[in-house]
Amino acid sequence: MLARLKGKWTYFVIAALLLFLILIPFRWFLGQYTVIMIFIGLFTMVTVGLCLLLGYTGQVSLGQAAFYGTGAYISAVLSKICGVNPWLSMLIAAAATGAFAYVIGYPIFRLRGNYLAVATLGLGVIVYILLRQLGPGGPDGMAGIPYLSIGGFVFDTSFKRYFLVWFFCLAVLLISQNIVRSRTGRALRAIHGSEAAAESIGINVDQFKVKIFVLSAVYASLAGSLLAHQMSHISPGSFGPLVSVIIIVMAVIGGLASIWGAIFGAATVCILKYELLLGFGEWDIVIYGLILMLVTIFMPEGLFVRLRELFGQWRLRYAQRGAEP
Amino acid sequence: MQKYLKWSVMLVLVVALISLVPMGCAQETVIEEGDTYKVGAVFDLTGPTSNLGVPEKNTVDMMVDQINDAGGINGHPLEVIVWDTEGDNDKCALMATRLIEQDEVIAIIGPTRSGTSLHILDTVTTADIPLVSCAASIKIVTPVGERYWIFKTPQTDKEAITEIYTYLQSANVSNIALITDTSGFGVAGRDILIADAADYGLTVVDDQTFDNDDTSMQSQLAHIGGTDAEAVVCWSTDKESAIVALDMQTLHMGIPLYCSHGIANMAFITAAGDAANGVIFPAGKLLIVDDLPADDPQKDVLMQYRQDYEALYGEGTMSTFGGHAYDALSMVVIALAGLDEGITLSDARTAVRDGIEQITYFVGISGIFTMSPTDHLGMEPGSLAMIEIVDGEWTWLK
Amino acid sequence: MSADQFVQYLVSGLTMGSIYALIGLGFTIIYAVTRIINFAQGEFVMLGGMLSFYLISAAGIPLAPALILSVLIAAAIGAIMYIFAIRTARRASVVSLIIITIGAAIFIRGIAGVGWGVEHVRPPYFTGSESISLLGAYIHPQALWIIGTTLVVVVLLHLFLSYTMVGKALKACAISPVAAGMVGINPRAMALIAFALAAAIGGIGGVVMAPSISMDFNDGFKLGLMGFVAASIGGFKSPIATVIGGLTLGIVVSLAVGVDWGPFTSAYKDAIAMMVLLLILIIRSGRLSAEERES
Description:
heterotrimer; A: mainly alpha; about 0% strand; C: two-stranded antiparallel sheet; 12 helices
């Protein structure tokens, strides 16, 4: 997006967007949406990983919730039961989840397409069952997970947590942006185009796929740890197979061709579920399903890409009008 | 280019600083005379346990109409804002936050399940607002020192299991087999069933589990059939318990089935058909209200509730789950009746919490409650009745 | 594990497996013709079961016509879903089409929940409830109906695909839509038939299984998941492979219950089934990848 907008207004646009993000949690602005925004931030982090995987390597994972869950649980168990510092436990959780993804990545990525989808789904189900059986507290989950803090500053209100989550979320987005623009990104697009061709020019296809898979797992794990340390209670229900499906929905709705689509996807689904459809009582899921279908039917390339197109057309018309007189 | 960057950063910082200013002077809501008393509720209206959540919402809707028709609470109309959790923990937490911050309710009732209730304890406690849960687990209100703001109304698993085990002991049973589901309800029940068995001279000879939405329990039951169990205790909700009953009939097991208080609705009997006959379970007295002696203190309340509920929603629709919401909202209403006029929202929340904690001898649907600072369930013992299903009817085993 | 118990595990595994196979068949048909994983397949099963209950008990229609009517309505809903949701999305990629089926699944589930309420229902058994003794195990008459229906459906489907014009056209589309188009087969018409057929088979599944498993509006997802796994074990290939996949899954889950190995109780049965799935997939990964690359 940024590349297209190059010009003197670029920085002002970015500044305005950033300002908007900063102002959201204030009571006099959009304070009532703080908690929804926190969830949007967390889901964006999980979805970006999937966008990279799906949009740039063309491979589907139906098991992202498993990494979201292991991140949350490892971090929670370390900090609550073993008394490790929450920041350190977050880091260990991310490393452990990444290692886990690496180990299973090689056998699983010998599969592709629908077989990969069903294999990752199976993985998600296995992790879900293990969390329920072996996780402290069983299906009811574990409580009393410590909050994150810096020095004496404890992230104990949604106002403070909002900034924490969005700091991580933007960091994840920027890192992903850099990856997409780098040599790795070009390699990924080559893989998406044609694996055989990519291989012929010396790209180690399997290795790249597994790397991205590991990265997506680390993102999901970070999001999971952040969730655990701010809800203070987690249970396996937040990481079941249905959650993996919702994450795919977010990725596709937002638009796979761009990592910034992840925000749109997560925001659309969260705002629909947690805000717009609340007044409809038991009709909520009917309308949710309908909107999901309509958006995908009429904008199959995703909201973000569609909006970018519209914005491009508007700019073009604006420029023409400017040139006419 | 550098210049624009600098200006942008300045702009962001300045506005961010300005925005900090009005933070300190937030005005707190005051409840004036005649204002609506707002109470929040979070129930599972869709999702796997919606068959518990829907009667809860129906009950609340019915009560609100009754109370407002009678002139409200000290002249204040009552409004209950009900949000659907979809059985989803995160959505439940969000809805609770919404009730607290946006809807500015005085107290919250629900959630429907133990899992979702435990999930929002932290949210509720840090916001200083009373919660009256409609879920079973005892963990919701213990340790009471950490559950200052939390109350609950349904009987605990432990009480229900005590009833079953006492009954089994009196029937001279010594070997039992367990079959429980892997949801929070089933696992909590299983833990207590295993821990308490020895106290009643019972030996658990087999311990099987199944998942909610499983299509058949025959393999687990065949496994139990290979042991010398004299009775099967099933801890699950109505749908899966019905499949257990049906599969036991199919396998000609020939030993009695004991179930949890989770099957206390007509749906179990309809689903299990013939196989329901002979099933024994503990439940609130609502199911056998006709058999209660006239001097039972709960009789009038139960009769009235059943009559009102079935008049609105149809014959055979009442269940003890709606009763949990009845008790929760009634207690909040009792506390609201003691509020002073013109107090702030946070004072009202504190006063309602204190009011609920001071409730003595409230006769509800699930039992008779006397709350205290050391007991946030406060239910008198003997609130459960052992019930056997005979010819498709609930029969009280006095 | 005694011999009687072993037979019982096999019998209940076969019953469960037939259920998974019937659901899996729908996935296979739609996937073969359109390459779409239809996440609404489980909802067709739910619709079949719920419809049969309401047609019998509320509308008072006799058993056999009610069952046929339920299946026809499910098939019609499948066709409507294809026409309005899938075919209108012309520019969509396969992943987007899959998301549309997820939307459709949520929509159907929601409508069912609003229309029929949240309570589970159980239609009457087709024939009696007295179970039959078989080699030391017991089998319910309804289970015989389930297993029998699965066999009949798969045989009919095989004959349909091999010996009728439409069936052969469907098969041609599955092999190569482009080549099929060149010889005058309309891929869209074939996709419509595939959706209606898959929905009908889902409906048949729902109708025969509902009397023994009960049904509520929320059941579609889990049933669909198991059917999807069954179809994947079978490799999304032929109806017969799917049925073998379903039966394998059912028997593995059932036998996993009988395993008493340390802490591994019946709580892990689905995890064990998924491990088996992963192993099958990874062992066959070389061949499967080659297939995907061709398609």
